[in-house]
Amino acid sequence: MAKLSARSQSGTVTSASNIHVVNDPAGTPVSSKETFDSVVMSGALNPLDTGLTAGTNQDQTDLALTAAVNDVTTVANANDAVVLASAVAQLKQTVYNNGANVLQVFPATSDNLGEGVDASTTIDPGQVGSFTAKDSTNWISVISTPSNGVTLHTGSGTLTRAQMSNGHRNNVNAAATLTALAVDTDTNFEVYTIGAVAVSLKAEATDRWILDGTALDDADKATNTSTAGDALSCRYDSAAGATLSTNGWSDTGA
Question: pTM for the whole thing?
Fold first, then answer.
């Protein structure tokens, strides 16, 4: 049968006799009332969209999500919103809220996330929403915290052992210096900047960072570029300290 292009298309399907939804076990033809926007195959969605900003209308006219995995990094106001693609059986979309406020997620018009037709659900900062369409209207919605853990920091402070272990993600949405405990063999964490704010990671008094291949002095700080999305990955190196892999952070001394 003829194949649908993976390009994004809009318009009413007027003749659907040879168009089928990919992965539909029943091979049911797409209704003539459906639009091409509703005929979404895995290849028709972008794999990943990052740096997304939620809309401020806080309704179904806000940012339409067009990727399988969506990283929303700016949620300026509580309940700013994004909108899923139109439901098609077995379609999946994942939404990460890496913003500073509660994120609303709306279904496309006439769809249902389990809260009622056209009603939204919410994702707290640091949480992720996984959405799977059961059919052309209804979604299964699961809101959870990633297994590696996420903490939102709104100011300076000392990291806990849990925040420095198991790939823990430390989101920071205000100017801050995060001070590390002495590293140990379980040290393995990330720092992620939400918004254009200055963030530093300071080593413990007797530890030193190896910043993108360069060894710093004991107790020095690694500081970002004050750009939203700045990121750092910290991994244990030796009893003397840890390695930092960054997108251009710099040594700013003790």
Answer: 0.50
